[in-house]
Amino acid sequence: MDQKTIEIVKSTAPILKERGEEITKEFYRDMFERYPEVKPMFDMGKQKSGSQPKALATAVWNAAMNIDNMENMRAFVTKVGEVHVKSEVKPEHYPIVGECLLKAIKTVLGADEEVLNAWEKAYGELAKFYIQIEEDLYKKA
Ligand code: HEM
Question: Going by CA atoms, what residue is nearest to atom 8 of ligand 1?
Fold first, then answer.
């Protein structure tokens, strides 16, 4: 990833952290509305209590800060990956999450094109990292 993208992602990460739960709540609302097929995968109790939006917001912040050294996140991503594998998360689900997350960032923050493009690139890299780790976990299972 280019330096400019890394700089934009890292410099906007604190705003995302501050408003992370707002963004992830909007994300789930929009995703469940437009992609109802993924809804049964999620535990609605965790949605109601807010623990799932909080976990996703923390993971996104964590990813932003480590975007230029994803290996730092391997242990964390492996733990989340184990939860994903149990929930049967597959590579084809990642573009859905990416699209809805970007849309929520745009809606909540009113972020401009440059910021959104940087986050789109960052999400793409992050998704590849998750998918790779989960592929290994599926092979082992
Ligand atoms: C890079 C993108 C993603 C990140 C950063 C992420 C992050 C997380 C985190 C932090 C958790 C909580 C793990 C725990 O309980 O310890 C989680 C759980 C979960 N994720 Fe993801 N996730 C991503 C992509 C996806 C995708 C593509 C799907 C499929 C639509 C998905 C579905 C789930 C489900 C079903 C759970 C279990 C929680 C529940 O039952 O509500 N995630 N994810």
Answer: 56
Ligand 1 lined by 43 (C-beta under 6 Å): yes
CB 102 within 8 Å of CB 36 = no
CATH code at position 47? 1.10.490.10
Closest CA to 91 of 55, 120, 127: 127
Alpha-carbon distance 32 to 77, whole Å? Answer: 24
Q: 101 vs 72, 97, 135, 139, CA distance in Å?
A: 23, 6, 23, 28
The reply to whether ligand 1 has any atom less than 6 angstroms from the CB of 83 is yes
Q: Catalytic site residues?
A: 94, 134
pTM over 0.90: yes
pLDDT tens by residue, 79-123: 999 999 999 999 999 999 999 999 999 999 898 999 999 999 999
Question: Measured from the CB, is residue 87 less than 6 Å from ligand 1?
Answer: yes
CA of 88 to the centre of ligand 1 (A): 10
| Domain range enclosing 32 | 3-140
CA distance 134 to 103: 25
Number of structural domains the chain divides into: 1
